[in-house]
Write a structure and sequence with these properties.
The protein is mainly alpha-helical. It is built from seven helices and two strands. It has helices spanning 3-27, 31-58, 62-71, 74-91, 93-105, 108-131, 170-179, and strands at 144-146, 152-154. The protein is elongated.
């Protein structure tokens, strides 16, 4: 075995390494490209949020502010009315009793209708709030930190936990072992 043979073996190994990398990327993926894509996606999402909220803040008329206030009134009014029943009962029991008797005469189907409307209104608001990000517009989440120049920089994510499947196949076990 001469130097030429060793050089040929090293040359062949160097030629094979990029192909092994390409095959490994099929199963594992390119981490750098995945992180770059995730960073671009997060940046575009935060850019969209900031542009939407800055447009709303800068281009509001009195009419917009009025309707925004009207849209925020139903829930506080419901709470104030319900809480206001207690002092009303103590202050004017006769009037309170007459009003409650009138409500007692109301047909059951009308109560169902009122509860359906209120349920859909409050349910839609709750669903809408649950889908919104947990931060205020213009505020970055905790995993973002700020450099000296004030430019947000993402911190690297922590290690991911492997997914445990109920019925693991041979292919799943192979994929899990390749990821580790």
């Amino acid at each position: 075995m001469g130097i030429g043979t060793i050089g040929t073996a090293i040359g062949a190994a160097v030629d094979v390494l990029p192909k092994v990398k390409d095959v490994a990327e099929v199963f594992v993926g390119n981490r750098r490209a995945r992180e770059d894509n995730q960073h671009e996606e997060n940046t575009s999402i935060f850019g969209a949020y900031s542009s939407e909220w800055s447009y709303q803040a800068n281009n509001r008329s009195g009419w917009d502010a009025f309707w925004d206030g009207v849209n925020r009134m139903p829930r506080p009014l419901c709470v104030l009315i319900i809480v206001g029943l207690f002092p009303w009962c103590a202050y004017d029991p006769e009037s309170f009793e007459r009003s409650m008797r009138a409500l007692g005469v109301m047909p059951e189907m009308m109560w169902w209708l009122i509860m359906t409307i209120l349920g859909f209104y409050f349910g839609a608001k709750s669903y809408e709030k649950s889908r919104m990000p947990s931060t205020k517009p213009g505020v970055l989440p905790a995993e973002f930190k700020t450099t000296v120049k004030g430019v947000p920089v993402a911190t690297p994510p922590g290690p991911r936990k492997p997914v445990q499947l109920e019925h693991e196949t041979a292919n799943d076990a192979t994929m899990r072992s390749l990821r580790q």
